[in-house]
Protein backbone atom coordinates (compact mmCIF):
# COMPACT_ATOMS: atom_id res chain seq x y z
CA UNK A 1 0.00 0.00 0.00
CA UNK A 2 1.16 3.52 -0.72
CA UNK A 3 2.46 5.60 2.18
CA UNK A 4 3.04 9.34 1.94
CA UNK A 5 5.38 11.25 4.20
CA UNK A 6 5.61 15.00 4.57
CA UNK A 7 8.39 16.70 6.46
CA UNK A 8 8.05 20.32 7.59
CA UNK A 9 10.99 21.95 9.34
CA UNK A 10 11.10 25.47 10.83
CA UNK A 11 13.90 27.08 12.69
CA UNK A 12 13.21 27.84 16.31
CA UNK A 13 14.02 31.26 17.64
CA UNK A 14 17.67 32.23 17.23
CA UNK A 15 20.04 30.76 19.80
CA UNK A 16 22.42 32.97 21.77
CA UNK A 17 24.69 30.22 23.02
CA UNK A 18 27.39 28.31 21.20
CA UNK A 19 25.20 25.21 21.01
CA UNK A 20 24.07 24.24 17.49
CA UNK A 21 20.68 25.52 16.41
CA UNK A 22 17.81 23.27 17.47
CA UNK A 23 15.11 22.72 14.88
CA UNK A 24 11.50 21.91 15.36
CA UNK A 25 10.21 19.27 12.94
CA UNK A 26 6.70 18.06 12.35
CA UNK A 27 6.26 14.82 10.45
CA UNK A 28 2.96 13.55 9.14
CA UNK A 29 2.74 9.98 7.85
CA UNK A 30 -0.36 9.24 5.81
CA UNK A 31 -1.42 5.78 4.68
CA UNK A 32 -4.59 3.96 3.72
CA UNK A 33 -5.01 3.07 7.38
CA UNK A 34 -5.05 6.67 8.57
CA UNK A 35 -2.47 9.32 9.49
CA UNK A 36 -0.02 9.92 12.27
CA UNK A 37 1.54 13.29 13.11
CA UNK A 38 4.40 13.73 15.52
CA UNK A 39 6.25 16.85 16.56
CA UNK A 40 9.70 16.57 18.07
CA UNK A 41 12.89 18.52 18.64
CA UNK A 42 15.89 17.19 16.88
CA UNK A 43 19.43 18.45 17.18
CA UNK A 44 21.10 19.39 13.95
CA UNK A 45 23.35 16.35 13.97
CA UNK A 46 20.30 13.99 13.92
CA UNK A 47 18.77 12.75 10.66
CA UNK A 48 15.17 13.80 10.08
CA UNK A 49 14.80 10.93 7.67
CA UNK A 50 15.84 8.44 10.32
CA UNK A 51 13.20 9.72 12.71
CA UNK A 52 10.58 9.70 9.99
CA UNK A 53 11.42 6.09 9.20
CA UNK A 54 10.98 5.21 12.87
CA UNK A 55 7.46 6.64 12.72
CA UNK A 56 6.63 4.90 9.45
CA UNK A 57 7.86 1.47 10.52
CA UNK A 58 4.94 0.46 12.80
CA UNK A 59 2.44 1.68 10.19
CA UNK A 60 4.09 -0.38 7.44
CA UNK A 61 4.22 -3.43 9.69
CA UNK A 62 0.51 -3.10 10.41
CA UNK A 63 -0.30 -2.80 6.71
CA UNK A 64 1.76 -5.91 5.91
CA UNK A 65 0.01 -7.82 8.67
CA UNK A 66 -3.40 -6.75 7.34
CA UNK A 67 -2.42 -7.84 3.85
CA UNK A 68 -1.41 -11.28 5.11
CA UNK A 69 -4.68 -11.50 6.99
CA UNK A 70 -6.55 -10.88 3.72
CA UNK A 71 -4.73 -13.68 1.85
CA UNK A 72 -7.42 -16.24 2.63
CA UNK A 73 -10.33 -14.01 1.65
CA UNK A 74 -11.78 -15.03 -1.72
CA UNK A 75 -14.02 -12.90 -3.86
CA UNK A 76 -17.09 -14.67 -5.22
CA UNK A 77 -17.59 -13.63 -8.83
CA UNK A 78 -20.96 -13.97 -10.50
CA UNK A 79 -21.20 -15.63 -13.89
CA UNK A 80 -24.26 -15.91 -16.10
CA UNK A 81 -24.94 -19.50 -17.14
CA UNK A 82 -28.45 -19.21 -18.56
CA UNK A 83 -31.03 -16.69 -19.67
CA UNK A 84 -32.22 -16.24 -16.10
CA UNK A 85 -29.60 -18.24 -14.25
CA UNK A 86 -26.33 -17.33 -12.56
CA UNK A 87 -23.63 -19.13 -10.64
CA UNK A 88 -20.39 -18.09 -8.94
CA UNK A 89 -16.71 -18.86 -9.10
CA UNK A 90 -13.77 -18.19 -6.80
CA UNK A 91 -10.17 -17.89 -7.92
CA UNK A 92 -7.87 -19.69 -5.46
CA UNK A 93 -4.29 -18.44 -5.78
CA UNK A 94 -2.79 -18.63 -2.26
CA UNK A 95 -2.18 -21.40 0.25
CA UNK A 96 -4.48 -19.75 2.82
CA UNK A 97 -7.34 -19.62 0.34
CA UNK A 98 -6.73 -23.24 -0.64
CA UNK A 99 -6.94 -24.41 2.96
CA UNK A 100 -10.35 -22.74 3.25
CA UNK A 101 -11.45 -24.34 -0.05
CA UNK A 102 -10.54 -27.86 1.04
CA UNK A 103 -12.65 -27.45 4.17
CA UNK A 104 -15.60 -26.20 2.12
CA UNK A 105 -15.25 -29.00 -0.45
CA UNK A 106 -15.10 -31.67 2.22
CA UNK A 107 -18.28 -30.26 3.74
CA UNK A 108 -20.04 -30.26 0.36
CA UNK A 109 -18.97 -33.85 -0.30
CA UNK A 110 -20.12 -34.86 3.18
CA UNK A 111 -23.51 -33.37 2.35
CA UNK A 112 -23.67 -35.51 -0.82
CA UNK A 113 -23.37 -32.62 -3.25
CA UNK A 114 -22.24 -33.77 -6.69
CA UNK A 115 -18.98 -32.27 -7.88
CA UNK A 116 -17.37 -31.82 -11.29
CA UNK A 117 -13.64 -31.68 -12.07
CA UNK A 118 -11.57 -30.31 -14.94
CA UNK A 119 -7.87 -29.57 -15.48
CA UNK A 120 -6.24 -26.79 -17.45
CA UNK A 121 -2.67 -26.71 -18.66
CA UNK A 122 -0.34 -26.49 -21.62
CA UNK A 123 -0.27 -29.69 -23.74
CA UNK A 124 -2.32 -31.30 -20.97
CA UNK A 125 -0.79 -34.78 -20.64
CA UNK A 126 2.35 -36.34 -19.19
CA UNK A 127 4.27 -34.29 -21.77
CA UNK A 128 2.88 -30.93 -20.69
CA UNK A 129 1.73 -29.27 -17.49
CA UNK A 130 -1.22 -28.96 -15.13
CA UNK A 131 -1.58 -25.31 -14.17
CA UNK A 132 -5.12 -25.28 -12.74
CA UNK A 133 -7.51 -27.81 -11.24
CA UNK A 134 -11.11 -26.70 -11.15
CA UNK A 135 -13.66 -28.31 -8.86
CA UNK A 136 -17.22 -27.19 -8.44
CA UNK A 137 -20.83 -27.84 -7.62
CA UNK A 138 -23.84 -26.47 -9.48
CA UNK A 139 -23.64 -23.13 -7.70
CA UNK A 140 -19.93 -22.58 -7.00
CA UNK A 141 -16.68 -23.32 -8.84
CA UNK A 142 -13.23 -23.21 -7.26
CA UNK A 143 -10.44 -22.39 -9.72
CA UNK A 144 -7.32 -23.72 -7.96
CA UNK A 145 -4.14 -22.21 -9.38
CA UNK A 146 -1.54 -24.98 -9.13
CA UNK A 147 1.05 -22.83 -10.90
CA UNK A 148 0.92 -20.14 -8.20
CA UNK A 149 0.31 -22.24 -5.08
CA UNK A 150 2.51 -25.20 -5.96
CA UNK A 151 2.15 -28.98 -6.03
CA UNK A 152 1.92 -29.15 -2.22
CA UNK A 153 -1.85 -28.77 -2.65
CA UNK A 154 -2.05 -32.45 -3.54
CA UNK A 155 -0.67 -33.49 -0.16
CA UNK A 156 -2.85 -30.93 1.62
CA UNK A 157 -6.15 -32.60 0.75
CA UNK A 158 -6.58 -32.43 -3.02
CA UNK A 159 -5.10 -35.86 -3.69
CA UNK A 160 -7.52 -37.62 -1.37
CA UNK A 161 -10.51 -36.05 -3.13
CA UNK A 162 -9.25 -36.81 -6.64
CA UNK A 163 -8.26 -40.41 -5.92
CA UNK A 164 -11.26 -41.49 -3.81
CA UNK A 165 -13.47 -43.70 -5.99
CA UNK A 166 -16.32 -43.16 -3.55
CA UNK A 167 -16.36 -39.44 -4.38
CA UNK A 168 -18.02 -39.34 -7.80
CA UNK A 169 -16.83 -36.61 -10.15
CA UNK A 170 -18.39 -35.46 -13.39
CA UNK A 171 -15.76 -34.97 -16.10
CA UNK A 172 -15.65 -34.65 -19.88
CA UNK A 173 -13.06 -36.76 -21.72
CA UNK A 174 -10.96 -37.54 -18.67
CA UNK A 175 -8.17 -39.29 -20.56
CA UNK A 176 -5.50 -36.58 -20.74
CA UNK A 177 -6.44 -35.20 -17.31
CA UNK A 178 -5.87 -38.67 -15.84
CA UNK A 179 -2.61 -39.09 -17.77
CA UNK A 180 -1.21 -35.74 -16.60
CA UNK A 181 -2.24 -36.19 -12.98
CA UNK A 182 -0.69 -39.65 -12.73
CA UNK A 183 2.60 -39.04 -14.51
CA UNK A 184 3.25 -35.47 -13.37
CA UNK A 185 1.81 -35.52 -9.84
CA UNK A 186 1.41 -39.21 -8.89
CA UNK A 187 -2.35 -38.81 -8.52
CA UNK A 188 -4.45 -41.75 -9.73
CA UNK A 189 -7.79 -40.19 -10.59
CA UNK A 190 -10.79 -42.23 -9.42
CA UNK A 191 -14.56 -42.05 -9.12
CA UNK A 192 -14.99 -40.48 -12.56
CA UNK A 193 -18.37 -40.22 -14.28
CA UNK A 194 -17.41 -39.15 -17.80
CA UNK A 195 -20.24 -37.30 -19.52
CA UNK A 196 -18.65 -37.88 -22.91
CA UNK A 197 -19.31 -41.59 -22.43
CA UNK A 198 -23.02 -40.85 -21.91
CA UNK A 199 -23.15 -38.87 -25.13
CA UNK A 200 -21.26 -41.46 -27.17
CA UNK A 201 -23.40 -44.30 -25.88
CA UNK A 202 -26.44 -42.43 -27.16
CA UNK A 203 -25.26 -42.85 -30.78
CA UNK A 204 -22.55 -45.52 -30.74
CA UNK A 205 -22.08 -47.51 -33.92
CA UNK A 206 -22.52 -51.25 -33.74
CA UNK A 207 -19.51 -51.78 -36.00
CA UNK A 208 -16.41 -49.73 -36.58
CA UNK A 209 -15.53 -46.52 -34.74
CA UNK A 210 -17.39 -43.59 -33.31
CA UNK A 211 -16.18 -40.00 -33.48
CA UNK A 212 -16.24 -38.23 -30.15
CA UNK A 213 -17.64 -34.72 -29.79
CA UNK A 214 -16.19 -31.75 -27.96
CA UNK A 215 -17.81 -30.20 -24.91
CA UNK A 216 -18.70 -27.15 -27.01
CA UNK A 217 -20.40 -29.32 -29.62
CA UNK A 218 -22.35 -31.22 -26.97
CA UNK A 219 -23.53 -28.00 -25.32
CA UNK A 220 -24.76 -26.84 -28.71
CA UNK A 221 -26.68 -30.07 -29.24
CA UNK A 222 -28.17 -30.72 -25.82
CA UNK A 223 -28.39 -27.41 -23.95
CA UNK A 224 -30.92 -24.97 -25.34
CA UNK A 225 -29.06 -21.81 -24.35
CA UNK A 226 -26.15 -19.95 -25.93
CA UNK A 227 -25.02 -18.27 -22.69
CA UNK A 228 -22.31 -20.80 -21.84
CA UNK A 229 -21.23 -21.05 -25.47
CA UNK A 230 -20.64 -17.31 -25.69
CA UNK A 231 -18.36 -17.44 -22.64
CA UNK A 232 -16.43 -20.34 -24.17
CA UNK A 233 -16.04 -18.48 -27.46
CA UNK A 234 -14.58 -15.44 -25.69
CA UNK A 235 -12.10 -17.66 -23.86
CA UNK A 236 -11.26 -19.57 -27.03
CA UNK A 237 -10.48 -16.29 -28.76
CA UNK A 238 -7.84 -15.55 -26.09
CA UNK A 239 -6.44 -19.09 -26.39
CA UNK A 240 -6.05 -18.73 -30.13
CA UNK A 241 -3.75 -15.75 -29.57
CA UNK A 242 -1.41 -17.67 -27.25
CA UNK A 243 -0.69 -21.40 -27.16
CA UNK A 244 0.60 -21.27 -23.59
CA UNK A 245 -2.01 -18.92 -22.11
CA UNK A 246 -2.65 -21.25 -19.14
CA UNK A 247 0.93 -20.65 -17.97
CA UNK A 248 0.63 -16.86 -18.07
CA UNK A 249 -0.23 -14.84 -14.99
CA UNK A 250 -2.31 -12.95 -14.23
CA UNK A 251 -5.16 -14.73 -16.02
CA UNK A 252 -7.72 -12.36 -17.43
CA UNK A 253 -11.40 -12.57 -16.57
CA UNK A 254 -12.30 -14.26 -19.86
CA UNK A 255 -10.07 -17.22 -19.02
CA UNK A 256 -11.42 -17.55 -15.48
CA UNK A 257 -14.97 -17.57 -16.85
CA UNK A 258 -13.98 -20.06 -19.54
CA UNK A 259 -12.63 -22.45 -16.90
CA UNK A 260 -15.79 -21.99 -14.82
CA UNK A 261 -18.26 -22.80 -17.60
CA UNK A 262 -16.38 -26.01 -18.39
CA UNK A 263 -17.43 -27.14 -14.92
CA UNK A 264 -20.92 -25.65 -14.90
CA UNK A 265 -21.71 -26.98 -18.37
CA UNK A 266 -21.11 -30.54 -17.17
CA UNK A 267 -24.10 -30.34 -14.84
CA UNK A 268 -26.33 -29.18 -17.68
CA UNK A 269 -25.15 -32.03 -19.92
CA UNK A 270 -25.58 -34.51 -17.10
CA UNK A 271 -29.19 -33.40 -16.66
CA UNK A 272 -29.82 -33.85 -20.39
CA UNK A 273 -28.13 -37.27 -20.76
CA UNK A 274 -28.29 -38.99 -17.36
CA UNK A 275 -31.00 -41.47 -18.39
CA UNK A 276 -29.01 -42.77 -21.37
CA UNK A 277 -27.03 -45.31 -19.37
CA UNK A 278 -27.25 -47.24 -16.11
CA UNK A 279 -25.22 -45.67 -13.32
CA UNK A 280 -23.05 -48.69 -12.49
CA UNK A 281 -22.28 -49.36 -16.16
CA UNK A 282 -21.46 -45.69 -16.70
CA UNK A 283 -19.06 -45.60 -13.74
CA UNK A 284 -17.29 -48.78 -14.85
CA UNK A 285 -16.99 -47.51 -18.42
CA UNK A 286 -15.62 -44.18 -17.15
CA UNK A 287 -12.98 -45.99 -15.10
CA UNK A 288 -11.85 -47.87 -18.20
CA UNK A 289 -11.81 -44.62 -20.14
CA UNK A 290 -9.45 -43.12 -17.54
CA UNK A 291 -7.05 -46.02 -18.05
CA UNK A 292 -6.95 -45.99 -21.87
CA UNK A 293 -4.28 -43.28 -21.96
CA UNK A 294 -2.51 -43.20 -18.60
CA UNK A 295 -1.82 -46.96 -18.52
CA UNK A 296 0.00 -47.29 -21.85
CA UNK A 297 3.45 -46.33 -23.03
CA UNK A 298 3.53 -43.05 -24.94
CA UNK A 299 6.32 -41.19 -26.67
CA UNK A 300 4.29 -38.11 -27.61
CA UNK A 301 0.86 -36.59 -27.06
CA UNK A 302 -1.20 -38.68 -29.48
CA UNK A 303 -4.74 -37.58 -28.74
CA UNK A 304 -7.47 -39.08 -30.87
CA UNK A 305 -10.92 -37.94 -31.94
CA UNK A 306 -12.04 -41.55 -32.20
CA UNK A 307 -13.51 -43.49 -29.28
CA UNK A 308 -11.37 -46.52 -28.39
CA UNK A 309 -12.90 -49.80 -29.57
CA UNK A 310 -16.34 -50.24 -28.09
CA UNK A 311 -15.58 -53.63 -26.57
CA UNK A 312 -12.79 -52.04 -24.53
CA UNK A 313 -14.92 -49.28 -23.03
CA UNK A 314 -18.63 -49.99 -22.87
CA UNK A 315 -19.34 -53.55 -23.99
CA UNK A 316 -16.95 -54.97 -21.37
CA UNK A 317 -19.01 -53.20 -18.72
CA UNK A 318 -22.43 -54.48 -19.79
TrEMBL record:
Residues 89-278 form the 3'-5' exonuclease domain. InterPro entries: 3'-5'_exonuclease_dom, piRNA_biogenesis_EXD1, RNaseH-like_sf, RNaseH_sf. It holds the Pfam family DNA_pol_A_exo1. GO terms for molecular function: 3'-5' exonuclease activity; nucleic acid binding. Residues 50-68 have a biased composition (Basic and acidic residues). Residues 1-29, 41-68 are annotated as: Disordered. SMART domains: 35EXOc (SM00474). GO terms for biological process: piRNA processing. SUPFAM superfamilies: Ribonuclease H-like (SSF53098). GO terms for cellular component: PET complex. This is EXD1. It comes from Mytilus coruscus.
Amino acid sequence: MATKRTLDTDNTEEQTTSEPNTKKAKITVVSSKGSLTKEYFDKSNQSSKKVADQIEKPIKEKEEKDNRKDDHIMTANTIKIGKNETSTYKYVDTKDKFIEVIKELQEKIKNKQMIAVDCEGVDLSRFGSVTMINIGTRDLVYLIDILKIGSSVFDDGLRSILEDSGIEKLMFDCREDADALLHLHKVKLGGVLDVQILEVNNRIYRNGYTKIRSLKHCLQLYVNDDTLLNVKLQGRSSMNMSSNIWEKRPLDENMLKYASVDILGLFKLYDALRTKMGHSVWKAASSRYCDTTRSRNRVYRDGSGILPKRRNIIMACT
